Each structure stands twice: as C-alpha cells, then as structure tokens.
Amino acid sequence: MRLAAIVLLGVTVAGCDGAKAPASQPSAAATPSKTESKILALSDVQRRVAFLRGILDADYDCRKVTAVESKPRDSDGHLVYHVTCDNAADYTLTVMPDDTFNVSGVPRGDGPRFPKATATAAPVPSAR
Prior knowledge:
The protein has 128 residues and is α+β, with helices and mostly antiparallel strands. Helices cover 17% and strands 24% of the residues. The chain has helices at 34-41, 44-57, and strands at 2-5, 65-71, 80-85, 90-96, 100-106. Strands 1-5-4-3-2 form a five-stranded antiparallel beta sheet. It is globular and about 35 Å long.
C-alpha cells in the first residue's frame, strides 16, 4: 500500500465561500482517533483536497477528485474511503491513526508501475 501524509492543518481552499457541504460520514467508532476526528471535521471540499494530496504524495496521478464515498471500516476499525479522480482512476484511502493515509488502487493511464508499494511523504508548509 502507498503511505501518504495527511496535511490537515495546512489545507487551504482558495475561493471557498466557507459553507460546508454535507459529507458522507462513515459509522462512528466507539472512540475516534485524533486523526479520524480531524478528517470528519473537514468540509467536503477540504476532505477532497486532503485526499488529493494523499494520492499525489503517494506518487499516483490525479488532477481532481471527482467523487468520494465512505466505506465500512476495515478489520482494524480504520476509516476507509473510495476516491475517484478525473482520469477515472479509483483509489482506496484508509485513514491511519498516525496522520497518514494508506493509498491503494489501480490508476488509469499514466500511473506508477506497481499499483501497490510503500512511500512516505513529507508534509508541505502551510500557505501564508
């Protein structure tokens, strides 16, 4: 699986009117982790940006996230999302408790040579 950093605090969406769109929320865990709480608190637009960043940090190709669907939690109780990009690539992002995503999927077109691998991404400085 590809491992990508979540950049939650540095997510800035320019031109956003601040209105939060209703987001599909997965079933709640008994005690959500700090990371899960951060993801669930994001607006739909911010969540798409965080997922896009995770996909790009994992060295996959995606210019725009076109759909996000929450899935049942995995066997370890982590949040799981199905994400589709504008190039029709589909990814599964699992929210890990250490502020990372596990990213897996089969990209369409120009993607990495191996669809499952491990990568660590450094956080991006926040915009000023």
